[in-house]
Amino acid sequence: MRRPAEQGFTLIELLVALAVFSLVVLALLNLAGENTRTAQLLQTRTLAAMVAENAAIEALISPEPPTLGAGEGQVRLGDQDWIWRRMVTPVDQGMLRIDVQVSGVSEPRPVAEVTVFRGGA
Predict the structure, then answer these.
(1) SS3 84
(2) E strands along the chain, which residues?
(3) Could you report the per-residue pLDDT of 35-93, keeping only the tens digit for each?
(4) Exposed (0-12), middle (13-18) or buried (19+): which is 102, by Cβ within 10 Å?
(5) Dihedral of the CA atoms 56, 60, 63, 64 (nearest 10)?
(6) Are 36 and 96 in contact (CB under 8 A)?
(7) 3-class secondary-structure state, position 9
(8) Is residue 2 part of a domain?
(9) Confidence class of residue 4 from pLDDT cuts 50, 70 and 90?
(10) CATH of the domain at 63
């Protein structure tokens, strides 16, 4: 049995425990930051996909077929401005292929893309 003066932890044991604890805290903070970045990216992609689908559906349900060639527009969704670009090309037997790409105002590369087909060209 230990004497009362020998009970407890040594300074070395406390320093090792503190070092292990600090490594665990750093790993958890890194994980929390990564989760936040992933959530932001997912939100951006989801909103861009909604804009792309809306632009494609507008081209599908309009009474007149969309004009051939490129078209562009800007819309605001989710407190962000989005630029959509639509390319309409003819396909066999009166079909139209409608490609929609969406990008952010500050980011030139597309974030979302949708392709739909419409008859009655």
Answers:
(1) strand
(2) 69-77, 80-91, 95-104, 112-118
(3) 999 999 999 999 999 999 999 999 999 999 888 999 999 999 988 999 999 999 999 88
(4) buried
(5) 70
(6) no
(7) coil
(8) no
(9) low
(10) 3.30.1300.30
107 falls within a domain: yes
Is 32 a domain residue?
A: yes
The model's pLDDT over 78-112, given as tens digits with 9 standing for 90+, comes to 889 999 999 999 998 889 999 999 999 888 899 99
Q: Is residue 1 part of a domain?
A: no
**pTM > 0.85: yes or no:** no
> Exposure pattern of 57-88 as b/e (b: 16+ CB <10 Å)?
eebeeeeebbeeeebeeeeeeeeeebbbbbbb
Range of 67's domain?
8-118
Number of domain units in the chain: 1
